[in-house]
Amino acid sequence: MRFFKIVFIVTLFGLANSSYSQFANIRGFVYQKENGEPAIFTTVYLQGTTHGAVTDVNGYYSISQIPPGSYTLMISSLGNDTIKELISLKSGDIITKKLFLKKSSIQLQTVEVSAEQEAKRSEIRVSVNTITPKEISQIPSIGGDPDLAQYLQVVPGVIFTGDQGGQLYIRGGTPVQNKVLLDGMIVYNPFHSIGLFSVFDADIIRTADVYTGGFGAQYGGRISSIMDITTRDGNKKKISGKVSASTFGAKTVLEGPLGKNTDSSQGSSSFILSAKTSYLPTTSKYLYTYANPNGLPFSFNDFYGKTSFSSNNGSKLNLFGFDFNDNVNYPSIAKINWKEYGGGGNFILVPPNSAALVQGHFAYSSYAIQMSEAMNQPQESDISGFNMGFDFTYFLGRNQLEYGIETVGYRTNFQFYNPVDRLIQQQDNSTELGGYFRFKIISKDKKLVIEPGFRAQYYASLSNFSPEPRLSAKYNLTDRFRLKFASGFYSQNLIASSTDRDVVNLFNGFLSGPDNLQQTLTEQNGSVKQIVQDLQKSYHIVAGFEYDLFKHVSINLEGYYKGLTQIINMNPYKLYDDNSTNASIPDIQKNDFIVEDGKAMGVDVVVKYEYKRFYFWTVYSLGYVTLWDGTMEFAPPYDRRNNVNLVSSYVFGKNLNWSVDARWNLGSGFPFTPTDGFYPQQPFTGGINTNYTTANEILGIKYGPYDSGRLPYYHRLDLSVKRRFEFSERTLLETTFSITNVYDRENIFYIDRITNSRINQLPIIPSISASLTF
């Protein structure tokens, strides 16, 4: 608790003394005049000086340590009129300016300051991809509107396991090791059972930051990656929306002001609502009978709502809630359904007499999943809990100090049967406390940017403390060539179940603070490591470079190493219950969980070309993942050696109302455990009283060497063609024709171990959609 007291004292000290500076400060927000939405990643600067800043995801900017005097405050943004405003500053001034960008009727050929180029020099941004609706729209719109899930599949370092039951694995991390935040709220399952769709509506996303490794101290509680998604506030000027329908499903978005606001300089309020549904099980019976005579068994419903309240100085409060559900029924295989809901809020506070920015969030979310299989016992899992935190940012000239605190609490209830039909059941209540600081320092010549940080993570339910130093840096060798580096230590308490002996994992439950864990792990060199903490732990090392090869061509290369120093998984060797009767049985045969370690390493290369109306993106990932469980080394089922994505988008036509988007993916085969044979197995359902001479036996499976086989290569081409019809300034109709798996590649889904029949991923699937924006 001493750390949190220090944070509180430093905060009060900073707020009380920042106004006595001999310099002046300008801060505020930049908005789009058309709808009141924040103008993100826009450069605000003082003309003729080196003082400037780039707006963040909230449109906030802060220019600090300005000598007293008269200046011209400017904003130059492509596609908008240039803003110029004369200001006069005295020592100690803290001036707040709300600025509004107006779309220009004249397309500028150049802009004086490029926010993107400035961010490349001043932001380290190792292993992070910032995704906006513009990028999402450049991916083929499969089954209707563009979706974040389809875009994430081309992010470097991300491995996608398939259209049906697909999951995303990021640089060797499993789905439970990826933290997903929606407006600061934890979302436990962001993807539907059909891997083409996420729970997020792309039309309400402002930005999505995907950290594939080496993330900073502001994030904790996960050991692999972070996905931080921010939604729009809603139109503050007028009622608007979008209605769309396709052969896969339908969607509607409605937004607008909560009250009349004629003065842009005053406060405002708005709302945004989104609803989408899948009716694929019905339409597929008529349109895609060749894919499945019984229809494609994927249905879901997603609802999201948000209200925003802004004051005249830019301070803001957002309140939001969601309800997501998913149902899938694979005939004669498995039936899965899950439900997820939650609500919360976040705020931005601009103190009147301080150059600090205060942000906070609070939320509650719940997730429950059930799966019933034809040949196995039912599986169930649910998790529910809260998270809240406060963040404080100080702008010190070019430098920036940020620190904060966070608490997370959740309850888990888990019931699972392992491959030998032994029950694993656990209920837990967990609490986590975290505090952090990070300090971005930019050298006077702007060549070196370094960001040291530290996170203190305390797991109260386990009485475990995890100190986690973080460090990242960038060195600008030239304006076109930049070196970068990131490293850090990470921990998490949450673990998931997975049936790794199956080619495809259909069920992933959640639990925390695992009981019944082994006390030692025998390393590959024969040494014995003591297990002193019931946590999953890792460290990351990432290094690479950015090179602007030509004016419109850029190269980004990163090599990474993730040391998986402690991984906790379900124990595949469990044969007996852990009780007094089996006291003489070795722990490895009766513990519910097993400790593993391992490593994930690889190289990601991205080459981008973007000029006017043509966009081309090439991504190549080379990765290796190996784990050690004390008895053997193996490659997990998501280990993909080679992964290639080619993405292209072209806008054409007299009024630029046509566009063609294409994506081709090639991936090497995943490991799997082959089946060597079958035998009659006596389950002893009556315990020691079972009469094995008359009791019915079940079919037992003799597995081959663990993950010793490799599936065939996966490859697929997706294509979409769009046509826009503008009826008025506010009314737009867009029609889309798309094809998934254009050349009908038979990519494997799984092999039924009993019948040895092969089930493939989705075949060629054409779709038509139309959307009306008003």
Query: So what's the overall shape?
Result: globular
Number of domain units: 2
Question: In this structure, how is the largest beta sheet organized?
Answer: 22 strands, antiparallel, barrel
Give the radius of gyration: 27 Å
Terminal residue distance: 52 Å
CATH architecture name of the largest domain: Beta Barrel
Q: Could you name the CATH homologous superfamily of the largest domain?
A: TonB-dependent receptor, beta-barrel domain
Determine the number of helices (DSSP H or I, runs of at least 4 residues). Answer: 5
For this structure, the CATH topology of the largest domain is Maltoporin, Chain A
Percent in helix: under 10%
Q: Helix/strand-derived class?
A: mainly beta
Poorly predicted runs = 3-20, 107-113
Mean pLDDT: 86
Task: Work out the number of β strands.
Answer: 47
CATH class category label of the largest domain: Mainly Beta
Question: Roughly what fraction of the amino acids lie in strands?
Answer: over 45%
Secondary-structure map with pairings?
Layout lengths: L1 H16 L6 E9 L10 E4 L5 E3 L5 E7 L2 E7 L7 E7 L4 E8 L13 H8 L5 E4 L1 H5 L10 H5 L5 E3 L7 E3 L7 E5 L2 E2 L18 E7 L13 E7 L8 E7 L2 E9 L10 E11 L1 H8 L10 E13 L5 E15 L3 E16 L7 E17 L5 E18 L2 E19 L5 E20 L5 E12 L4 E13 L4 E12 L2 E2 L13 E2 L8 E3 L5 E3 L5 E12 L5 E18 L22 E19 L2 E15 L4 E2 L7 E11 L5 E10 L3 E2 L2 E7 L16 E6 L5 E2 L3 E13 L5 E9 L7 E4 L6 E3 L4 E9 L1
Parallel strand pairs: 1-7, 11-14
Antiparallel strand pairs: 1-4, 2-3, 2-5, 5-6, 8-13, 9-10, 11-12, 13-14, 15-16, 15-47, 16-17, 17-18, 18-19, 19-20, 20-21, 21-22, 22-23, 23-24, 24-25, 25-26, 26-27, 27-32, 28-29, 30-31, 32-33, 33-34, 34-35, 35-36, 35-37, 37-38, 38-43, 39-42, 40-41, 43-44, 44-47, 45-46
